[in-house]
Predict the 3D structure of the following.
Amino acid sequence: MNKERFPNVELFSPEVVKSIKVWSKIAYESDTPIYIKGGAIRDSLINLIHGANLKVKDLDLVVPAGLFRVVQVAQKYGFTIERRGKRKKLPMYHMSGDTGLDVDLSYLLSSPNDKNVSESEILKQDALLSDLDINTISYNLLTGEIHDLLGAMKSIASRQISLVSERSLFLNPATIFKCLKIAAKTGFDVSPTSLEMIRKNAGIVLRLEGWFLRRSIDEVLEFASAEELLAAFDRLGLLEIRPEIVDYLTP
């Protein structure tokens, strides 16, 4: 790989670049556009823009079509492949190789049946189905292009996180905890509009089973103290709806 062919590779943290080199070859051999999405781009850009030192641990890859063809080519490159249930009812594969980063591979949420739909429209629809704005940037491994269709880079530059839409909460109530986790991990603020959206719809946490609620809280606790979390939950009105959270977070 050279920077002329992949002009944006310098935006990524070093541990991601090694994976880009391998997965760009897989994209070419499978003749399939493969996109990097989510935390790898988000954390790399936060490191670059704010001088942070966030460690990228895995890679989220998505394709509009040709998933099984990509899996077959990845096997030729020595990846160990395991089917991991589904992502929004779509098949997902977990892969391990010698690039240093484990990979989750699935379809775009907006994978179209109409082949005449443009790339930008496909990616925009996918972004609109995502959870948080700073998770919506994508990188095309075939072309090296960065796609930022919802202003995620601006949010990263201003150190702010926003829910993509109210719909994201109804699609997955655990988005509330993911939002708080990433805010604690990055030191970013959750936008006032998103905080109000969470307060307004706090009752959706009743849909989470107890074990899943506890697991979601534990993930936030990796980056925030129990006291900070209790205060945040109280401000958002979650303690009134799920009072068992207090017992879980209080020794």
Observations:
- The first strand starts at residue 35 and ends at 37.
- The longest helix spans residues 14-30.
- Residues 176 and 198 are 7 Å apart (CA to CA).
- The radius of gyration is 19 Å.
